[in-house]
Amino acid sequence: MKTHKKLSESITFRLAIIFPLLLGTSLLILSAINNENYKACLSSACISYFFELYKYPLSLLGMSVPLSAIAAAIHRSEEASLQIEETIRQNQFNNYIKHKEDFFAFLNKVETNCECVFSDPLNLYKKIFPNNNNYSSFNYISNNQENNQFLDDLRNDTIAIFESLYDANADESTLTSLIFDIDNITRTRLNLKQSTTVPKSSESILLIWPDNFAQRSSTNILTISKNLTSFALYTHRKETKNDEISSKLKLPNSGATKLKNMEKINKLAVGIDDFL
Fold first, then answer.
1. Which of 202, 180, 181 minimizes the C-alpha distance to 270?
2. How far apart are CA 200 and CA 215, in angstroms?
3. Closest to 57 measured CA to CA, from 23, 33, 17
4. Is the Cβ–Cβ distance between 138 and 96 less than 8 Å?
5. How far is residue 143's CA from residue 129's CA, in Å, rounded to a whole number?
6. Spatial distance between the Cα atoms of 115 and 223, rounded to a whole number of angstroms
7. How far apart are CA 24 and CA 253, in angstroms?
8. For residue range 50-109, what is the model confidence (pLDDT) as tens digits?
9. DSSP state letters, 75-113
10. CA-CA distances (angstroms) from residue 115 to 101, 160, 192?
11. Which residues, at least 6 apart from 273, have a Cβ–Cβ distance to it below 8 Å?
């Protein structure tokens, strides 16, 4: 990393002064040695002859002034460039810190709306911005260069939850697996904990939303997925899962199927802690 230094410490500036002086002085001495016609004379003709005779050495000596000025200008340009780079780094650092603070404040609002607690918000931030954001690099957009696997998987799993809820052929095994999938999403991947608002008399201490589990978990996971995607300004890859659930929604009695499956899930969720 380049550091700021004084003009007098610049090698370019020193060479701009010393090199013309050395070259001009050397040529002046050589010219004087080879000229034996010396005499004291201060007339205008003699002075004109002196400058005519030694104009090249004197010109070289004078070159140190414009060259040093050019070197000084280059030095100022380099210093300005360093200051700009330092300002950019400082802005990136400050933006990164502020962005994380905004993200944590954003999660607090999501926690209030969804009645849950994010136990590891920093880890969640790194999952959403895995490569873009650190103390030396920053970008508001999650998929600036590549797809975000975490957000894509969360969206697809959310769609899969609703696909199962609207599945008229879902049996007890399928719905039980769905409970485990929801638990994996909430406790493992999102690092959620129960909110303090959850009644102590609840049947489960591990499920994040034990009361009315099917309805609240599906709705809140959908809300969290949409909110995280929105904060990251992320654009999902096109998937076919939306088409699958859309076709199930169009089936006769799809609403009744959803309610029926939710009732089954809520019954299966009772005592599920022993298997989690």
1. 202
2. 20
3. 23
4. yes
5. 8
6. 12
7. 100
8. 666 667 776 777 677 777 777 777 777 777 777 888 888 888 888 889 999 999 999 999
9. HHHHHHHHHHHHHHHHHHHHHHHHHHHHHHHHHHHHHHH
10. 21, 22, 10
11. 204, 205, 206, 207
Of 42-46, 91-95, 150-154, give the lowest mean pLDDT range.
42-46
230: exposed, middle or buried (Cβ count in 10 Å: 0-12, 13-18, 19+): exposed
User: Strand pairing partners for 116?
Assistant: 194
- Model confidence pLDDT, tens digit, residues 177-207: 999 999 999 999 999 999 987 776 667 889 9
Roughly what angle, to the nearest 10 degrees, separates helices 11-33 and 64-114? 170
d(CA 259, CA 168): 11
Q: What is the value of pTM for the model shown? A: 0.73
For 6-137, where are the E strands, in sequence order? 116-118
| Bridge partners, 118 (sequence order) | 192
